[in-house]
Amino acid sequence: MTPLDFQNAWSVASKDFETFKRRRGIIYATIAFPLGIALGFPGILAAIAYAYPSTTSASAASFTPFLNAFSFWFVIGAASLPSGIASYSIAGEKIQKSLEPLLATPMTDSEILLGKSIACFIPPMVSIWASSVIYMVAMDALTRPWLGFLYYPNWSFGGMVFLLAPLASVLTIELTVILSARASDIRSVQQFTGILFFPFIVIYVATELGVIQLSGINLLIISGIFFLADVLLFYLSTATFKREEILTKWK
Amino acid sequence: MIETKNLTRKFGDLTAVDDLTLSVDEGEVFGFLGPNGAGKTTTIRMLACLISKTSGTAKVGDYDIGNSADQQKIRRMIGMVPDNVGLYDELTAYKNLDFYGRYYKVEESRRRERIEYFLKMLGLWEKKDIAAGTFSKGMKQKLAIARALVHDPEVLFLDEPTVNLDPEAAKTVRDFILDLKQEKKTIFLNTHNLDEAQRICGRIAILNTRLMAIGTPTELERSASGRKTVVQLEKVSDVIVSAAKKAGADVEAVEGNRLVIKVGDPEKENPDILGAIFAAGGRVQFVTEVSSTLEEVYLKLVRSQ
């Protein structure tokens, strides 16, 4: 078996980065959603604080679970953003017929797939992480006077942003690879990957309703489930992304 | 450089390529003719190690397409232009070539040098910073060929490189292929353009799932109906025809004042036949050799299946 050459994968990713730069819509979408979370939720909180100036530290403590629920939107962002990029990177190339010359190069299937995965993973995650810093700063600035301490950073938020969000992102990328084999256009791939929203929305709603708490142990359990799903989809996506399969079975 | 033995590829019950045996020499421009669905693209894909074979063997250079360790080496020594050129439309002409140079690990200074060389050669240097998606079909085709050459491959697979091109663009591409011939590159050209194959290929194979014929264009033309000599006379008479026949001529037809004579070995037989015609009082105006056109040969072979 040929060892994986990271330089090859990086060349593939670099090409995709260059393409994304010319597709402004992808860049705007990648930045807008996490930035919206980073500014939107603190904005809501500021509006509440403005409407209820008598908020005390005791009443403020009661809304801390909501802060975790708000934070979970970064995970939802990580699950949704790669779909747009990955559908352009994989299904888009298939439609543009630019996969065949790429497959004729000496790179292995795994290197091409890794390169494409890197290209789909890095922009959303950078956007998510940068926005999460803005979010933490804004939230801390708002809540510290009430709580008397800095709520962020904390382990739960760290777990969501650095563990669950990347796992969710990988899940979407792998699912997009699999769906790209079957779909004949980019839009249908994006629509199908939308099904990934469902489990995340369920978790979010359950958190808002207080059914579950996004505490350390729960986050680890959820992360474990997503990790297993990632492993399963990894095998399916690598089995799908093979030269022979792409040229003879992909629609 | 390329050698196949009983190469076969099946897709389920459908046999795309059946029992293909051929060889292509180093530096040869080899034409692969056949109708749509004849298995030409499948053959190229097998030789480029993009899809597997069902049975048989094939070698590109010293490497076996069936050996997974060799497949990467084969892909390194070949360049490929598929029927859909598949350029990165958003990227500039230069970037399209540059990324492919990187995929083949061509060193940066060498990459710059080769990209400049090909873009200038193809008249695209002035447009190097323009997105490939805005190019005409001919320009895209040229760019795709340059992309396949940026790593200096030994073998170039071209799948219908002039299809859908206007005559001028097609000529530019053909001329470029002929230039590559001077560089001693082995070129495997899939086409169903008979005129193109005849003009640029040293040898031609006609495929219709199975290999129907192989040879130089002249050999193929002669193989279908043999060689013929046409003698245009001032006036044909029975005496002249019988004299020609006595000299061993196989007179196929008398068309007005023209005798159409089937000849196995015209270099040897024609002097005797013409001598007999002269002796019988025949006044010869023209003598020409005719054979079937490549188109006739192609249609005959393809329809015979």
CATH class categorisation of the largest domain in chain B? Alpha Beta
What are the segments of chain A in which pLDDT stays under 50 over at least 5 consecutive residues? none
| SSE ordering of chain A | HHHHHHHHHHH
CATH superfamily label of the largest domain in chain B: P-loop containing nucleotide triphosphate hydrolases
Outline the low-pLDDT stretches of chain B.
none
Mean pLDDT of chain A: 86
Q: Helical percent range of chain A? A: over 70%
- The pLDDT mean of chain B sits at 89
Write up this protein.
The complex is a heterodimer of chains A (251) and B (305). By secondary structure, chain A is mainly α. Chain A has one domain (6-248). Helices cover 82% and strands 0% of the residues of chain A. Chain A contains 11 helices and no strands. Chain A has helices spanning 6-22, 24-51, 57-61, 64-96, 99-103, 109-147, 155-182, 186-193, 197-208, 216-240, 243-248. The longest helix of chain A is centred in the middle third of the chain and has 39 residues, at 109-147. Chain A is elongated, with a radius of gyration of 20 Å. Chain A starts with 5 loop residues before the first helix and ends with a helix. In chain A, 46% of the residues are buried. The model of chain A has no long low-confidence stretch (mean pLDDT 86). Chain B is of the alpha/beta class. Chain B folds into 2 domains: 2-215, Rossmann fold; 225-291, Alpha-Beta Plaits (2-Layer Sandwich), CATH 3.30.70. Helix content of chain B is 40%, strand content 29%. Chain B has helices at residues 40-47, 68-77, 93-103, 108-121, 137-149, 167-182, 194-200, 217-225, 238-246, 266-279, 294-304, and strands at 2-11, 14-24, 29-33, 55-60, 63-64, 78-81, 155-159, 186-191, 203-208, 210-215, 227-233, 250-255, 258-263, 284-290. Chain B has a 6-stranded mixed beta sheet, with helices on both faces. In chain B, strands 2-1-4-5 form a 4-stranded antiparallel beta sheet, covered by helices on one side. Chain B has a 4-stranded antiparallel beta sheet with strand order 12-13-11-14. Chain B starts with a strand and ends with a helix. The mean pLDDT of chain B is 89. Classes of the chains: A mainly alpha (251), B alpha/beta (305). At the A-B interface, helix 1, helix 5 and helix 11 of A face helix 2, strand 6, helix 3 and helix 5 of B.
